[in-house]
Q: What sequence folds into this?
């Protein structure tokens, strides 16, 4: 009889422990707090993605998984429960099989990232646009010196400054700023979301037609917009990856006449351009 009661006691204890673990997993694990669906989506919106190099990955069984093993996983079939520490940084992730709901959340996160946060208008002193543009360019370049410290927030703030400057003061010209400052305007827009590139592309094209911007930079942006929208590019400036991770020329409209179009706007032949990427040039070019 004592053995029977002992077995029941052990079984009940095991159930309580499992329920406790489940509850702790939802609220936090040893000082960590699990991110909610809404938190994950809002972090994606501002480009605040987890840094894999500082995360400890754990299987549902409780076993830690190595970086080499992580690289062998099929990411389409797994999901991550991300946990933040007291500073709000994701330091722990539990790996489990992905559900249909996980796939929906993943789509929402990607959509939020593409949309980005709302642009806020910044009050611009139109008598001081040279210094404003110089500061934005400096922040842009500093932000790209180290990929590990890159901040999407810096890019977004720069974009708010430049779009506010254009909207309030008009598109600058070479009469009001120098060539490097004009290029800085293009550069910061080039580093923005597709919807903003598309919104300001007509103004950039007009500036190029007026001789205030390098037309090739503007056409490079146009190619980038088209590829982002899953359309074939026009001038062959964008490089993609195939299913094996190899660099290839992104799809191009009217391939036989590609070099004709490139020559008309001052681009080098596509063969020379692709040589820098170690990519074989397409055949049947005029």
A:
């Amino acid at each position: 009889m004592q053995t029977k009661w002992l077995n029941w006691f052990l079984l009940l204890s095991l159930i309580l422990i499992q329920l406790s673990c489940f509850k702790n997993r939802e609220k936090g694990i040893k000082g960590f707090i699990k991110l909610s669906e809404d938190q994950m989506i809002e972090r994606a919106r501002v480009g605040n993605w987890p840094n894999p190099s500082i995360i400890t990955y754990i299987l549902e069984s409780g076993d830690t998984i190595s970086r080499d093993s992580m690289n062998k996983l099929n990411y389409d079939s797994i999901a991550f429960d991300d946990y933040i520490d007291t500073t709000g940084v994701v330091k722990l992730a539990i790996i489990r099989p992905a559900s249909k709901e996980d796939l929906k959340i993943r789509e929402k996160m990607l959509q939020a990232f593409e949309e980005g946060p709302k642009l806020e208008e910044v009050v611009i002193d139109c008598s001081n646009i040279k210094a404003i543009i110089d500061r934005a360019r400096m922040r842009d370049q500093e932000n790209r010196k180290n990929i590990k410290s890159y901040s999407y927030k810096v890019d977004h703030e720069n974009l708010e400054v430049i779009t506010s400057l254009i909207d309030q003061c008009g598109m600058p010209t070479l009469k009001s700023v120098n060539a490097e400052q004009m290029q800085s305007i293009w550069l910061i827009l080039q580093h923005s979301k597709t919807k903003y590139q598309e919104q300001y592309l007509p103004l950039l094209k007009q500036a190029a037609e007026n001789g205030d911007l390098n037309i090739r930079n503007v056409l490079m942006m146009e190619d980038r917009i088209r590829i982002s929208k899953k359309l074939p590019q026009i001038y062959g400036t964008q490089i993609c990856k195939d299913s094996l991770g190899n660099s290839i020329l992104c799809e191009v409209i009217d391939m036989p006449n590609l070099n004709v179009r490139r020559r008309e706007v001052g681009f080098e032949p596509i063969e020379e351009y692709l040589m820098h990427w170690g990519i074989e040039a397409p055949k049947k070019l005029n």
In short: The chain is about 50% helix and 10% strand.
